[in-house]
User: What shape does this take?
Amino acid sequence: MSHSQSQRQLGESRLVRWTLIAIGLLYLGIFLIAPLAAVFAQAFAKGWRVYLDSVTHPDALSAIKLTLITAAIAVPLNAIFGIAAAWCVTRFRFRGRQFLITLIDLPLAISPVISGLIYVLMFGLQGWLGPWLQSRDLQIIFAVPGIVLATVFVTFPFVARELIPFMQTQGFEQEEAASVLGARGWSIFWRVTLPNIKWSLLYGVVLCSARAMGEFGAVSVVSGHISGLTNTVPLQVEILYNEYNFTAAFALASLLTFLALGTLLAKRIVEWRTGVPGR
Amino acid sequence: MSIEIRNVSKNFGEFPVLRNVSLDVQEGELLALLGPSGSGKTTLLRIIAGLEQPDSGQIVLNNADATRQTPAQRRVGFVFQHYALFRHMTVAENIAFGLKVRPRSERPSRKDIKEKVRELLALVQLESLASHYPSQLSGGQRQRVALARALAVEPEVLLLDEPFGALDARVRKELRRWLRRLHDEIHIASVFVTHDQEEALEVADRVAIMNRGTLEQIGSPTDVYERPANSFVYNFLGNVNLFHARIEDGVARFGGADYAAPANAPAGSVAAAYVRPHELELLADASHPDAIPATISYVYALGPVVRIELTRNDNGDLLHAEVPRKRFEELAAIPGEIVHVKPSNVRVIADDYVI
Assistant: This one.
């Protein structure tokens, strides 16, 4: 049955159709496009020069650097963990396997603020490991390690969640074929497994990176908000905003927005490459 | 190179998949593992390849114990039911895989690998498709790529899991004759798993029939078809008519006639008597004392053999007969008519198998 036929059979009138489309567009405009436009309008309100000054301010540069470092540590860690976890739960049957799958989702289920607090309770001055760390002059909370830890925790499930269903449907036959043909562990992984999962992996990595760079709640709890030292971009945006420095706040916010748009683009490209529309 | 399977048992959890199976495959022999689904035949094949470990028992390849060897060490070729081709590699890369992953010291030169791939592509008649990806091939072509890939490592044993299962009927018949010719050319011990009795009987040198994790019978296709060891094999290989015979005075009696009974059948018991459809003779009159009167219910008169369904007049049991078209025309039987059925080559089996 062709498309136009099905429309005719549903019998919607022109009026209904256009009203629905108009409502959709209006909704999209108010809640998505207008705020997005406002970010850029505010960021460039005082011209290019001020925008450039805002994003190249030492505190801003420090925040950008910290955000990138955090992502550069969290994303590879969670990619490796994600592959290992997906391999483990799809290739082996063991007691507690279902529990492990559920556990991987835990960071998505709990509030990011709690995720941050967990680390304060663990490593903070009053925490379990606080005195031990202090006696060795190691600082985790209100320092870069804490920010990285909180980010790793929050972005923990993204890669694994992408890979598990994919590897489940893929099965294990190609790896078995490789092993009968004489390939050993690493060789099988590099030549067979990785090429097969690469698009799913990339998709997970894209989502993981976006979250790692954009995370606010968990990082906010453990960071201590020291400008130029422990502020990531989202935290710096909030500080600038609270200081009524709107242009600078929105200039930095526009960077995060670019990142989000870039992520969406990357996501589209991966979807197009894998032929999986609208995931 | 030979395969010896010695007392292999395997459980999946509580469920026994293989129970004490022993089996030898000689060099140059093509053996079919035949059985219904769940009979353990694929598990046995995977144990030979090293993809599964037996709970007990031994796998001996070429007179050396291979039970603890990894699949990579066993030098077997394995063709998977769904081919398991590497989707991201071309046909040529798929075939070259087994050679490319060898340790540097044993790896052939790039030129030799290329030459070997060319040779194998010619063997499976796919020269023109070397740079295609598996997704661009038909089922039969994929099957042949899988076979070429398995042969590239010059295996001493070739194992095939339902090699024709996923193909349509015409391609399947073509490919199995081709496989038979190929096997005769390369002359290694081969085992293939199938649930299709026609396939097993046509292609294999010997057929091993499995049921519920045990080996029911092993022998040449003629052996197992003509002389089934038990009721299961009788029922599994082709259609069969069942008569209930009473054991009396050392003979099996049914339909007013006596037939040879096995020595172990206790007097007074009821035994199963089997007769293949083509071994039922249909007579127009009651001239023969052993004949059983039956009413024709359906006639399928398609092809050179006419299949007739009958109902016994004495107890209402269903019978299937196959008669040559010529005989059928002489008989001129139509549904509703009464004929007399005379069994020949009756085989009485006194085991506890119940249909």
Remarks:
- Confidence is low (pLDDT under 50) at residues 1-7 of chain A.
- Residues 4 and 10 of chain A are 10 Å apart (CA to CA).
- The two ends of chain A are 26 Å apart (CA to CA).
